[in-house]
Amino acid sequence: MRTYRIGDAVALLGVSADTVRRLVDGGKLTAERDELGRRIIPGPALAAYVRQVHRAEWGSTGSSARNRLSGIVPEMLLGDVSAQVEIQAGPFRVVALVSRESADELELEPGVPAVAVIKSTNVVVERP
Question: How many Å apart are CA 10 and CA 46, to the nearest integer?
Fold first, then answer.
């Protein structure tokens, strides 16, 4: 069974080490101790926590797309016909090409919140 140290869970969850420790101390996230006394989190426990926390966010959106990344627009390149929109969603950077008309209708500009909704027929999964 795969286990994660606190630092690994921090990177995967996008929260601070203190937050992970509070989740463990509060019983919201299961952890064990390794042979050196360090806290380790079983992979299935971390997966269950992520499912539980984000399940409410997965509710009906009125769309068949389920891959949604909320973030902020740090940069845009506007052309006459199209716009390149960058969204920083936590540690993830998503770049989309949309019509200039859509960008104008959504009033996209640096500093506004935006959601990248991704519907794809081809997704590549890799292991780090």
Answer: 11
Q: What's the chain's average pLDDT?
A: 88
Main-chain dihedrals φ then ψ at residue 107, nearest 5 degrees: 55, 45
| Residues 75 and 122 sit within 8 Å (Cβ to Cβ) | no
| Six token digits for residue 34 | 């390794």
- Between the alpha carbon of residue 52 and those of residues 21, 25, 66, 103, the distances in Å are 18, 17, 16, 34
Q: Is the pLDDT of residue 58 over 80?
A: no
The residue type found at 92 is F
Instruction: Please say whether the beta carbons of 81 and 67 come within 8 A.
Output: no
Angle CA 108–110–112, to nearest 5: 60
Backbone angles phi, psi at 78, to 5 degrees: -100, 130
The pTM for the full model equals: 0.63
DSSP 27: T
Separation between Cα atoms, residue 65 and residue 78, nearest integer Å: 26
